[in-house]
């Protein structure tokens, strides 16, 4: 009996020691666990979010902390735009995620949509398991098919988003797209992939193509993010360039800096529980990275928030794509001497490489010459030219870009007259109300029959640029 009592005391002593070790490491361990769990599971048991517009949140018997309520107010309208019937429930589910994950959702529309779809899958599954009666007031009975239809429209199949993620495995040959759009659509940043030799050689060749475009006054169809251009030019990339890279996340980080100057900054940052570690999206390599050594255990405070913001922007813009950016600059310098880039700004580079995004009609008029093959008198030809430019002036910007693309094979105008090789021209063909205008993009020439009325000219011209009726004439 004595031996049993001694053994029991020893067991209790060991248990007390283990408990002390667990409690002493609780903060570091909990942060580590939270930060590592990038794909933290959503829970159907969370309570719905109640926006301030639907009543006073302070009337809630268990109100959310102020910073969580503020995050909810920012998330709610975006969730409502995707799933209006379940916006409150889904927003409440999302608010259970870590602050770092919530910042990512605020920054990335695709990440937010994926989480909203995941929440809908859980809600639908819960409804099937527990019967429709308990959630009839949410209108869930008929929504399952609606969600599936939305998924089919969005993804091109009836598979769920979860199924698609499981099938989305990395290609062993590193055949992922070379670029992605981190923020504003239409602006591209290198996607590192696995940084294989073949992939980096592709980026170097892209740099060479950009160099040739500059050398030969040609336009290039890819519009690069501002920080990419600055790297190509050998300029220093700063924090404000992040606004062009990811404007939503830039604003979130700016609000974080403003919060550090408030009277309750310490309490706000303590509640947010951010650390010097971030979760990257798939295009940037995925997984979690530390911004500084042992960053996962170093909390972000009002005192070090500036360093956190600087490291965050630097990592996503430069560190993630360091090798592709270096390869592109190398390729550019394979074609152009280094000193030829010294006087160029990022804006100059974009204008020379991408041209003028907005088609200025007056500029187009000044570039264009007319050739007459109709044999009509000068007065009729002058009237026809006025019809043509009047129609172009009233076109939308998209229609103007379509016209210039149909005419010259580029949707943009070059920055200067020298950029047109050769200059654009219009050949007026004999009267014919039946045929469409045609184009020879090799010589930037548009062939237009002398139509009998302005209305027919407009109708035929718009039809031609939509059907892309190219041809050698």
What is shown here, in short?
This protein has 473 residues and is mainly alpha-helical. Helix content is 53%, strand content 6%.
Describe this entry's structure for a reader.
- This protein has about 475 residues and is mainly alpha-helical.
- The protein has helices at about 1-25, 25-35, 65-80, 85-95, 100-105, 110-130, 145-155, 160-165, 195-215, 225-235, 240-245, 245-260, 265-270, 305-320, 320-335, 345-355, 360-365, 380-395, 395-410, 455-465, and strands at about 180, 190, 275-280, 290, 370, 425-430, 440, 445-450.
- The protein folds into three domains: about 15-165, c-terminal domain of poly(a) binding protein (Orthogonal Bundle), CATH 1.10.1900; about 180-355, Hect, E3 ligase catalytic domain, CATH 3.30.2160.10; about 360-465, 2-Layer Sandwich (Hect, E3 ligase catalytic fold), CATH 3.30.2410.10.
- It has 20 helices and eight strands.
- A four-stranded mixed sheet has the order 5-6-8-7. A two-stranded antiparallel sheet has the order 1-2. The protein has a two-stranded antiparallel sheet with strand order 3-4.
- α5 crosses α12 (about 245-260).
SS element count, helices: 20
Encode the helix/strand succession as letters.
HHHHHHHHEEHHHHHEEHHHHEHHEEEH
Cα-to-Cα separation, first versus last residue: 109 Å
Query: Mind describing the biggest β-sheet?
Result: 4 strands, mixed
Proportion of residues in β-strands: 5-15%
Low-confidence stretches: 20-39, 132-172
**Radius of gyration, rounded?**
30 Å
Helix-and-strand structural type: mainly alpha
Number of strands: 8
Widest sheet, order of strands = 5-6-8-7
Helicity range of the residues? 40-55%
